[in-house]
Automatic annotation (TrEMBL):
Spans annotated as Disordered: 202-237
SUPFAM superfamilies recorded: Rad50 coiled-coil Zn hook
Composition skew (Polar residues), residue ranges: 211-220
Zinc-hook domain ranges (all copies): 162-205
Record's protein name: Zinc-hook domain-containing protein
Annotated GO MF terms: ATP binding; metal ion binding
Keyword entries, A-Z: ATP-binding, Coiled coil, Metal-binding, Nucleotide-binding, Zinc
Entry keyword annotation includes Oxidoreductase: no
Native source species: marine sediment metagenome
One Pfam family in the UniProt entry: Rad50_zn_hook
Keyword Signal attributed: no
Length: 301
């Protein structure tokens, strides 16, 4: 029984040893395979070293290329940025050029009106002179109206006086005809028939004369009043027309004066705008804009 156990253990040990031998055989084969590979590598050493040298050089060139590529990208970005800045500056100057040209066109159109405006102003001055003559005519008509009013007033006063005197004469005549013991108004003596008739005749003649004067006065007064009414109507119409013409002339003169001032200012500004335009064109011709950016662009390029 003991031998069987020992035999079993021996067999088990033999199996383990066989397995161990197999493992060692595998390792030896692996080592031999690696050794063969190493020998092959050693045999290819010059080729490998040459390849590695080429790889190192290629890597160096690639790194250098990547570095230059990065620098080139930065330079291109900088160039694009500078180009945009220069284009913006040029566009701004071209805009200023267009604005200056438009301004010059406007100023030329305004300033070219100056001779015509001055001619119109001279015509307006002639119209003012005519209005001055109309004012003088109006003044004379007013003076004539005042003189007529004075005459009418005098005639009305004279009418009242004549009517009163005629009334007084009539009263005296009535007294002479109704009183038998009439007395002389100067000496207070009684009047005889002849003296009474003589006085009555004198009063009657005086009354008739004053009546004729009154009629003449009334005729003249009526005529003067008609003349006054006609003259006042003419004066009123003339004054209204003169006021309208003066208001119109003043409005035109004000507008002309303003337009002439604007035209004169335009002529003065036109010189400045042309100088400004010439300066802008000179800058454009010389590319004298964004100078710092252009210098930087030359350095980049």
């Amino acid at each position: 029984e003991n031998r069987k156990l020992q035999l079993a253990q021996l067999e088990e040990h033999i199996v383990k040893m066989e397995r161990e031998l197999e493992r060692w055989d595998d390792q030896i084969n692996q080592y031999l395979s690696r050794l063969k590979e190493y020998e092959e590598l050693i045999a290819q050493r010059s080729t490998i070293e040459e390849g590695y040298t080429q790889f190192a050089e290629a890597k160096r060139l690639n790194d250098e290329f990547n570095q230059k590529l990065g620098l080139l990208v930065k330079l291109n970005d900088r160039k694009s940025e500078l180009d945009r800045a220069i284009e913006r500056a040029q566009a701004a100057m071209l805009t200023d050029h267009a604005v200056a040209q438009n301004r010059i066109t406007e100023l030329e159109a305004i300033s070219q009106k100056l001779p015509q405006l001055r001619n119109e102003l001279q015509q307006m001055q002639a119209e003012w002179y005519q209005l001055t003559e109309v004012e003088e005519t109006l003044r004379r008509k007013r003076q004539s109206s005042q003189e007529l009013r004075t005459q009418v007033h005098y005639l009305e006063t004279n009418k009242t006086r004549l009517e009163k005197e005629i009334e007084e004469i009539e009263e005296k005549l009535n007294l002479l005809s109704t009183q038998s013991d009439a007395k002389c108004p100067l000496c207070e003596t009684e009047l005889g028939i002849d003296e009474r008739r003589r006085i009555e005749t004198k009063y009657a003649t005086d009354r008739d004369s004053k009546s004729n004067s009154l009629k003449s006065n009334q005729t003249e007064r009526a005529q003067k009043k008609m003349e006054l009414e006609s003259l006042e109507s003419e004066t009123s119409q003339l004054e209204a027309r003169l006021n309208r013409d003066k208001a119109s002339a003043q409005g035109k003169a004000s507008i002309l004066s303003k337009e002439i001032t604007e035209a004169e200012e335009a002529s003065s500004k036109l010189r400045e705008e042309r100088e400004k335009l010439a300066e802008i064109e000179q800058h454009l011709a010389k590319k004298d804009f964004a100078v710092i950016e252009q210098e930087a662009l030359h350095e980049v390029v």
